[in-house]
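Quick one - inputs below.
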Amino acid sequence: MKHVPMKQRKDKPVPVRPPEEGKADAAFDLWLHRGLHKLFDDVADEPIPPELLRIIEEDRDK
Amino acid sequence: MSEALVFHDQVIGILPKLRVQALALTRNRAAAEDLVQDAVCNALSAQDSFIPGTNFAAWMHRILRNRFISNLRKRRDTTDIDDVPSSVFATDAPHEDRLALKELGQAMTRLPADQREALVMVVVHGMSYEALAQATGCAVGTAKSRVFRARRQLESWLLGERSERQAARPQIRAERPLDEHGALHS
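Output:
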């Protein structure tokens, strides 16, 4: 089989995307991930309300 | 260790993640706490239906989600974005960061609940799409779609111009040569 160089191949059309857009997407993703952690991590770290723990423990002791 | 002892420990262990999920769904701290408590009560009532050794996290997250949907249907909740307290996502970050986070928080409240929940559970909890699908009772493709749409919508709202330019730019294709009749060369 004859080798066909990449430039001459009749490949599928390939959408060309400016390299800066890929970087911008990655930057947004990083910012979004950090932002969501800042918004929600504190909630996960807050002490569990005593009333809620009491409900669970009372059920455990039944 | 008895199965009942393990079950209650699992409930306590998952509470932080339930609180995050609840806040993502309700956008309101007080409502989130109420939702978690309601879900825990539901879970305790239904503990005999949980099969030890199966996916407890998915079971518990689905209970909370179902309770949220049930509450919505009862209340016909129409919480307007203006009713959501600005402090729902309070942060002590530096001023510039607070402004950006405030924008992000406000944009999050505008997302559909299922997209918001999906994005939070993947990003904040580090869930896989498969785990998210199990936790929310949907197909993996649906779970991926929710996360993708949430991210894309947030980018559109928060970055605006760039996203519009991206949408408007035509794709540049490596085209095959056409013959005189407009047909593609093979």
